[in-house]
Design goal:
156 residues; 26% helix; 21% strand; 7 strands; alpha+beta
Length: 156
């Protein structure tokens, strides 16, 4: 099964809330465990793509910032996210008009911007557009399924 979850938000604190829930605070402990397991799998990526004005202007590899608990390591039985490194890597504010609820992410040159990326986005876009919020692409279909599992950090 081929799948990718896209979270499209316009503020750094939205991403902070999502990461905290994904890796530590989700009500469904099986979901947290699955996220952590995927994170330690070498084939998974955790990328934050910063897009302004329809162009990719930045990329942050989140994997090194997220330290999941290790039941075999008494020094790391809780895990953590390095918020100081996260804040240094992720701008607090985006410039220009911000995407909002119900709006589609419009990318001007996805092939060029994501040529070196490990992402399913060029395969998906422009035929299927991502909208503000939570998007799941699974086996060629796009849905808002993550919204059933995670708390939306911007429910407005």
């Amino acid at each position: 099964m081929d799948w990718t979850t896209f979270f499209v938000y316009n503020r750094r604190d939205h991403i902070r809330l999502l990461l905290t829930e994904l890796f530590f605070d989700a009500e469904d402990s099986d979901r947290v465990e699955s996220t952590r397991s995927d994170h330690v799998d070498d084939h998974e990526t955790s990328d934050l793509w910063v897009i302004e004005g329809g162009r990719l202007i930045g990329h942050v590899d989140l994997r090194p910032l997220i330290d999941v608990p290790d039941v075999f390591d008494p020094e790391n039985d809780e895990g953590r996210i390095d918020w100081q490194a996260f804040d240094a890597a992720v701008h607090a504010d985006l410039r220009g008009p911000l995407l909002g609820r119900g709006e589609e992410l419009r990318l001007l040159d996805v092939d060029q911007d994501f040529a070196a990326a490990t992402s399913d986005l060029p395969t998906l876009y422009p035929g299927r557009r991502l909208v503000y919020g939570m998007n799941l692409w699974m086996n060629g279909e796009l849905s808002d399924e993550p919204a059933a599992y995670f708390t939306d950090p911007d429910p407005s």
